[in-house]
Specification:
This protein is of the alpha/beta class. 47% of the residues lie in helices and 15% in strands. α1 packs parallel to α11, α9 packs across α12 and α10 packs across α11.
């Protein structure tokens, strides 16, 4: 009798995982590339930079090598303690020092606001210092802007070189699904954002999001509230970045910061669907490993359904993230990547309760922004 009940329980459990696996196909991010059309419009590049002496040369060189040049490349030095200012100058960029941080602003937002005010052109492109652009990336981005107008943002292709960087896979995917990447009026991605000063003024300027940790999502939401289109794409070969090359500590700090405000802009329905699917991914990922770990003690071999569940979810996971970065064969370790995500997630929860997270040597108020 008990054995029969156990079998029924296992059948029902497997059925719920199957349903969650099917659900995943409906909420997967729509990973759209920039259209291949090209055009040329006057625009300014604005790069907020805090201690970016290692990243800036790659970005500034790629800008110099671009087929079409911006009217100006502005680097806003956000109180760096390294050679950021000198490095930017050596590449011919216009370098300005961010004023002392005003009350209520985060450092990056204040730097961006300073750069936008300095820019000569109506059209401005905000780029993070760790991004690199291809020869025709600007022309393709401008063509998509001319076609769609509003705010055009791009999630760059995650170019990784170290094993620990591959642990970003789950974070990248959750962020893409939560932000409705590729969908109409999805949330914006901060590494690459193009818009006009006129549209920015219509929403009240960066002042509207001055205290936000995730300024990209907050800015996108303000555009949508004011009936201005937001279109998001993925970088492919046009835009790429290496997010945390400094080491695993910077990776943990970066994603802890992002998760502290990560639910911003995600509807309750989307959050529920994402949680439902992800809980299935977590359970299925460890179904087979746990069965192998328990085998010496239970003398029970892993069953066929355990093989199928773990492998099926692994294939789905690979399909979802393959266009987001060069994760490649490392994704066979996806159960470990999920475990790492959960550890950082709960660490972020603790830091959020405490009200503080650390990023680039600054203390972030998880609820209000930078102090």
């Amino acid at each position: 009798m008990n054995k029969g009940i156990e079998n029924i329980h296992m059948d029902f459990y497997g059925f719920t995982l199957l349903l969650r696996w099917i659900l995943g196909w409906f909420i997967q991010p729509k990973l759209n590339f920039l259209a291949e059309e090209r055009t040329q419009l006057d625009f300014s590049v604005i790069i907020p930079a805090r201690n970016e002496e290692k990243s800036l040369p790659r970005l500034l060189k790629s800008i110099k090598d671009s087929n079409f040049q911006p009217v100006e490349t502005i680097v806003v030095d956000d109180h760096s303690t390294d050679q950021t200012f000198q490095v930017a100058k050596s590449f011919g960029a216009s370098v300005i020092s961010a004023p002392e941080l005003e009350e209520g602003w985060t450092g990056k937002n204040f730097a961006l606001n300073t750069g936008i005010a300095y820019a000569k052109t109506e059209l401005v492109l905000l780029i993070d210092a760790d991004v690199q652009v291809s020869n025709f990336a600007f022309e393709k981005l401008l063509a998509n802007y001319k076609k769609n107008s509003g705010l055009i943002s791009v999630q760059p292709f995650h170019q990784m070189s170290s094993f620990y960087e591959r642990f970003a896979s789950v974070f990248n995917l959750i962020g893409a699904i939560g932000a409705r990447l590729g969908e109409k009026n999805g949330l914006a991605f901060g590494p690459v954002m193009l818009f006009s000063k006129n549209d920015l003024s219509k929403i009240g300027g960066l002042e509207k999001v001055k205290s936000q940790i995730l300024e990209d999502r907050a800015l996108g939401l303000e555009f949508i509230k004011n009936n201005i289109n937001v279109h998001t794409f993925i970088g492919k070969t046009d835009f790429k970045f290496q997010m945390y090359p400094e080491g695993i500590k910077s990776l943990i700090q970066g994603f802890t910061k992002n998760m502290a405000a990560g639910s911003a802009g995600i509807s309750k329905l989307r959050w529920t669907l994402l949680f439902t699917w992800f809980s299935g991914l977590v359970a299925a990922a460890w179904e087979l490993p746990f069965a192998f770990l328990a085998w010496p003690f239970t003398q029970t071999q892993p069953s066929m359904y355990q093989y199928i569940l773990t492998i099926a979810y692994g294939i789905q996971f690979w399909i979802f993230v393959r266009k987001l970065g060069n994760f490649n064969w490392y994704l066979i370790f996806y159960p470990i990547m999920i475990l790492f995500f959960l550890i950082v997630f709960f660490y972020s929860v603790i830091k959020t309760w405490q009200g503080k997270v650390i990023w680039k040597d600054r203390v972030l108020d998880a609820k209000k922004g930078l102090k």
